[in-house]
Amino acid sequence: MDDLFLFCTVVEQGSLLAASKRLELPVSTMSRRLSALEERLNMRLLHKQGRELVATESGWRVYESFRSEMEQIEVAYQQLRRQQNDVEGTIRLSCPHSFYSGFVAQIVEQLLKQHPKLNIELQLNQESGMLPATERDLIMTFDISNMDDMIARPLFTSRHGFYASKEYIARHGMPSTLTELERCQWLCVDQDRKINLYRDDKLAHVINIKPRLILNEIHQLMAVVERGVGVASIPQNMVKGTDLVPLMPEYSRSDRQAYLVYKERKYQPRALTLVVEALLNGVKNMPGPTRFTV
């Protein structure tokens, strides 16, 4: 039946080249399959007439016999093509506020413009610790513990340094020892009191801090640091273009890996695949994506 459909397309298009473009098949493949069809039917179906390829008398009888069936196949084929290009469904995405403002918003808005039947439910948080509940859930997170049965696609890595404003340093002085760094007026995005300090990518020290303010949004926390209230651990790329001063720059926190997490399944919803690939490609194309981390 496939070869008969190919034959009918050649008759309608008038040449192998035009039919190959219509069916998106190589001319050599079409020629080989037409020859095989003629051999099976034991009759000549096509012959050249100038630059065109037209049906022989026998070929025309075959074409007339199968034309209505071929038209139905063509209609079904076009419907399948449209369905392949028409993504629909609802995807639930959970990500930190800074991810959304940094690069996710732009990607989501572009997807909604390009795919009218795609819906996205967004939940913004500080750092998601939840597990994907359905096959349409996507979660962006640094923490993939207890997610062994999930797919975790790497997004980007982040390295944090320690920063304060010139106003803060003028009032409290520049820390020159780890003890002085530990006793600074700390501002944090979470309740973690223990900070591992790395030097040359090796764990060098651990300090225990007492946060004076916990604010679970990195951009807002950074604004408080800029106003001279205290010091904070901030992604290094995020401070570019600011007046913040690095404290003991030979030390940093360990690199953090961000992931895009979703349930593993044999047949993945097309809408989910579309959003996953858009997010992965989008973060690759963003300049300095680590500045969007928390």
Strand order of the largest sheet: 4-3-5-14-6
Note the quaternary state here. Answer: single chain
Any idea of the CATH class of the largest domain? Answer: Alpha Beta
Structural class: alpha/beta
* Residues in β-strands, percent: 25-35%
Question: How many separate domains?
Answer: 3
**Strand segment tally:** 14
* Average pLDDT for all residues: 85
Main beta sheet, described?
5 strands, mixed
Q: Element order, helices and strands?
A: HHHEEHEHEEEEHHEEEEHEEEH
The CATH architecture designation of the largest domain is 3-Layer(aba) Sandwich
Over all CA atoms, what is the radius of gyration?
31 Å
Keywords: Coiled coil, DNA-binding, Transcription, Transcription regulation
Family: Belongs to the LysR transcriptional regulatory family.
Domain HTH lysR-type: 1-56
InterPro entries: LysR-type_TF_proteobact-type, LysR_HTH_N, LysR_subst-bd, WH-like_DNA-bd_sf, WH_DNA-bd_sf
Q: Any chance you could write out the topology, listing elements then pairs?
A:
Layout: H1 2-13, H2 16-23, H3 27-41, E1 46-49, E2 52-55, H4 57-85, E3 89-96, H5 97-114, E4 118-125, E5 137-141, E6 150-158, E7 160-164, H6 166-172, H7 178-182, E8 186-188, E9 194-199, E10 202-208, E11 211-214, H8 218-226, E12 232-235, E13 245-246, E14 256-263, H9 270-285
Parallel strand pairs: 3-4, 3-5, 8-11
Antiparallel strand pairs: 1-2, 5-14, 6-14, 7-12, 7-13, 9-10
